[in-house]
Each structure stands twice: as structure tokens, then as C-alpha cells.
Structure of Methyltransferase DDB_G0268948:
Amino acid sequence: MAHRRFEVKEHAASYLRSRVPPPPQELITEILGFLENMKERPFDLAVDIGCGSGQGTLLLAPHFTQVIGTDISPAQLEVALANSSTPNIFYRQCPAEELPFADGGPDLVTSMTAAHWFDRPWFLQEADRLLKPRGCLALISYTLDMDLEYGQHSHTLTDICHQSTETPGK
């Protein structure tokens, strides 16, 4: 579980200024296309776990009735709130492994460059509990050099992640 990261407002503001840009819109489009293959629009709820300063959360807002960004850092959430006036975005403070939402709520659960901070087996269990049937979990990262551990599915999940980062034709 991630603790004590970006607790000071100045650190959170610095993170917003110096963080590598959010995922490209093409990646968001790819995720939405995958989700559309699983279920019909409209999409009701997306939850962005470890949202930090909210850059990725903002990308989801046009496609969902409601988007909730969560982060363990109150300072990060304060910066996210200050940089967003989008009416369908809300923020909640909580750890990734203890999400305060009912089972089967969101169509999409994302983590954009934050999953490396999580207790991944615990987080994956929470994401599984949280998602609607036929919902989508999208872990976005600059690198996927981590293993995903979730019971008997650990090897399969890790293989999928590694395959998704391979260059076609190689």
C-alpha cells in the first residue's frame, strides 16, 4: 500500500508541473473501444485509482456520466480539485486497496502510472470486486516490468501485460 507520497502541497504542485504528460488520447480511445466491445454506451461510471493531480481523470470525463478520481494523498487531491472544473468529476481520498464503493459499480477502473505503488494482489482483488460485469480494468504505465499477482490468474495476467507491450512483428 502506498503511504506518505506527495503529502505536502508543494510536492503535489511540483508533481503536476513536472509529471510526464498524461496518456495520449489515442490510448484512451483504445480503452473505450475495448469497453464498447464488452458493453453498450452510455458508460456510467469510471474510477481512476491513484489519480494524483487528476490529469488522466480529466481525459475520462467526456466519455462517462461520472468519473471519480481516488488518491491516498490529500495534497494531490487538493491540486486535482484546483485544476478541474469539470462538473462530472469527483475526488475521494482512499488507498487503492480499500476502495469505498459498492460492488459492481464502475464500467471502467483505471490506474494511470500509479499501480507500481499498490499492493497489487490486494488492489486487483478490489478492482475485481468493484467492476460491473463486463467492465474493464486498464492499468496504464510507462513500463510494465511488474508481475500481476491474483491467485490462480497471476501467470495469465502477467503474460497479457507483457504481450500488450510487445512491438507487433517482433
About this structure: The radius of gyration is 15 Å. The first helix runs from residue 9 to 18. Residues 40-164 form a domain with the Rossmann fold fold (CATH 3.40.50.150).
